[in-house]
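Usage

Read records sequentially. Each one opens with the input sequence:
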Amino acid sequence: MNISNRNLLNTILILTMLSFTIMVNAASTGSSGVVRTKCTSAEQEIVDFETLETEIRKTSAIGGFAKLKLSGDINKMVDALKTYHAGDSPLTLEQHREQYDLLYMKVVSQVQDKDPELFNKLCNAWDPLWAALQDESNLKKVSQVRAMETGATVAITDVFMSVINTVIPLANAEEILSHDDTVKKDLLVVVAAQGVVCTAITVYKKITNHDYVATCEGGDKYRVNVSDDGRVNVAPHPSPK
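and closes with the structure output:
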């Protein structure tokens, strides 16, 4: 084999290995549809769900009752993934990922303009936290941490934590929504967080992951997506003429 052929073969082998590495990494984190390549680095990263909840509790960008609701949503998401790992979930892993992304979009949409430091942390933690949820052994640790922290008094005030401990079980016992209704409900929160008056999302079209056209009751349409810097964007979507 001459030198030029050997170099060509080496190039092909390198490209093959790179392609395989990319596919493995994509499979480990799930297809996100968005590559957040422009996240600003943060001094202290969010490394797990215990850190995430602590950051949500600390920020002034989210109101008290919204924090309460988010805590319940995180509980339900963790429980849903436990059910999936046990083989009892009616949802696919892709649907669980979509619900995770929408939950994350709800948090980001409320802090991106009010708490830049937390926004940067959230941007960097988006995919790593999902990777942790996919790992069954890590999920058991997450559940244990959450169970211990529910009874702790390290949050805003002792009184507020007592309310959380009382109400979260009730929130988790609410009517179980279909995946489609969950997406509509979460999109409504994201849209409302950007100041849009919308009483309900009646229909939505998923373009790609993190990219939707949502129709409000009354007919107004909005494009809801995530940019590569982690920002959630909501803009009027023109109806076809």
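Summary fields computed downstream for this record:
- DSSP finds eight helices and four strands in the chain.
- The chain has two domains: 43-176, 178-241.
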